Amino acid sequence: MTIPDISVGPFHIAVLLPYAMFLIMLAIVLLAVPLLTWVERVTLGLIHDRLGPNRVGPRGLLQPIADGIKLFFKEDILPRSVDRGIYYLAPILSMAPPLVACALIPIGAVRVDMGGGQTRSLALVAADLNVGVLWIFALASLQVYGLILAGWSSNNKYSLLGALRSSAQSISYELAMSAAIITAVLMAGSMSLVSIVQSQAGGIGHWNLFRWFPLGVVGGSVYLISMVAETNRAPFDLPEAESELVAGFQTEYSSMKFAVFFMSEYAAMVIASSVATVLWLGGWYSPVAALRFIPAPIWFFAKVGALIFGYIWVRSTLPRFRYDALMRFGWKRLFPVVLVTLMAVAFVRAYTTDPTAKSTIPPKPEKPKPVMSGAQGGR
Amino acid sequence: MSSHALSFLVLAALATGTALAVVLHRNPVRSALYLVAHMLVLAALFLKLSAQFMAAVQVVIYAGAIMVLFLFTIMLLNLGAGEIERKRFSVGFISAVVIALVLAITILGGAVWHRGLMQIATPVRDLRMGGTAEAVGFALYDPELPWLFAFELTSVILLVAAVGAVVLAGRRR
Amino acid sequence: MQPPVDHYLFLSALLFCIGVAGVVTRRNPIVVLMCIELMLNAANLGFLALGHHLAKMAGQMYAIFVMAVAAGEVGIGLAIIVALFRTRETIDVDEVTELRL
Q1: Are C41 and B115 within 8 A, CB to CB?
Q2: How far apart are CA A232 and CA C46, in angstroms?
Q3: Could you give the ipTM of this predicted complex?
């Protein structure tokens, strides 16, 4: 039996790309999560001027594996009075949105020769949706369910309080985050993530963060702050702080279920940083023309890595917010600022002509004249 | 059976199943979770109808905000205890079921009887038509169509709802 | 081939009837509100199916407004239930039948 002769052409690449990209992004995020736990501990140690993990492997590199093995062998406790279905569902619901978002994040663009002298630019993304940004909103909203259900099903007052606080914080900062995202959408003129990145081509001056100064800076800063609050990371991590409500909504979870919550926090961090890179930092474009030879995905992940370092830096430096100060900051300080920024961006967008603007209003089709038929003429 | 028909059948079965679970389950938290699943299945059905914007908005608003509000209320009022067992087959229950059955037979019978009366319309390829955000935007904010006025009124409605909720549920001084 | 619009309309009618059955049968007002949401979603499905079939934007427009008003209505409804729960022992709709305390 002979192996049939299959030639791989640009058509095959275009068809298989979404599936391949989803698997690649999923693999990257799932592998990055344990790596991030190690990076965080080492970085925290460096900033705090103390030794980080140094027992397992060179420089503690095998620490995530050791942690995984420990968590795997821990006793899997099922408390007697929990609502069992919801108890097992909550960690799954917490881990699912960041993994689904892997399908939406574009990491680069390649030129593919379609034959016949045509080249097309294919974005390295699993799903370039026309309303991609809305799906980011949707996944951020669905992230809340894991918290609520974990606290509720644990049948434990401290867990419930921690969960309600966490989720109230999440939905409050969701508002500011959504308004900041809409600011970026307005600057780019499209809700498709690939189009938003492509509107930031041309060097660091064109990035949304530095566009229409100071509107871009304010919008980007608000997004970065609310992104930290959304993922329940320091300094906004009161609901899960160890010294406060035991472990908040995660109190009754042990071994692998706790590991899934832990991983979902880091996965959400990676995805939130990726979305920030796409919206504000120019996606996969290099900041200066001279460095354009470096491949696009390298630039993308370098920027994402810089943002994650920012996450860890902020955690190690700033003290924790008190809960009422946190809510007051979100509603009374952050949200009005971003609303004013949004209105200003809308004005600038409506009354200036930006050469990178995408949409032009097509002419209206003519209305068909109503036809009077004989049956109607008599009435 | 074509893939379209198969996916419609699967989604329709899921939608009906989750809707029945909402109505029949004793525990309100489970009902709420089944309703969330129902919203997501409906979002998939909207995608089949090429209404991409509406599908995303359905997940953001219904599954992401309204159902979270439901869950908060159920948890804060601690209504997970389930309903008081009614006297089975009381007069009220029987009459309610009869009314529901009559309504169902009327509506479903009408839907089955009048099928096939729709004329097929030819779709127009136009940036102003379709399920994308641009199409919805052009239709919504067109000054010649009535939707712009309705949009402004809706914003007033939402303001009234927000203020009303705060007033009704706030603490009495 | 997309399934014909009749299938979507039948599904919409079926979901609506399930919602009605829930509204008239359940005694927990929060579950009643959820069944009302079922009915509204069924109506949305009908709007979108017909809008797609007749190639008009009106279907999506109506669906957007139904969603927005439903959001407002759920907020007010839950606020009423919370206020009710505070003054009375129970929120069973068969018990709460008088306006006066």
Answers
A1: no
A2: 39
A3: 0.92
Q: Does B86 touch chain C (CB under 8 A)?
A: yes
**Does the beta carbon of B133 lie under 8 angstroms from any beta carbon of chain A?**
yes
Tens digits of residue pLDDT in B157-170: 999 999 999 998 87
Residue with tokens 């259900």: A149
> In this structure, what token pair is assigned to residue B146?
């009535």
pTM of the model: 0.88
**Chain A residue whose CA is closest to B30:** A86
CB of B135 closer than 8 Å to CB of A130: no
B62 contacts C37? CB cut-off 8 A: yes
Tokens 């939402």 sit at which residue? B158
* 3-class secondary-structure state, position C15: helix
Q: What does the pLDDT look like over C40-84, one tens digit per residue?
A: 999 999 999 999 888 888 899 999 999 999 999 999 999 998 888
Integer Cα distance of A107 and A32 in angstroms: 15
Q: d(Cα A248, Cα A3) in Å, to the nearest integer? A: 59
Opening angle at CA C27, ends C26 and C32, nearest 5? 60
- Assess A71–B contact: CB distance below 8 Å, yes or no: no
Nearest to C10 by CA among A74, A188, B104, A31: B104
How far off is chain C from B104, nearest CA to CA, in Å?
A: 5
Write down the residue that tokens 């509506």 correspond to.
B107
Q: Residue A19 pLDDT more than 80?
A: yes
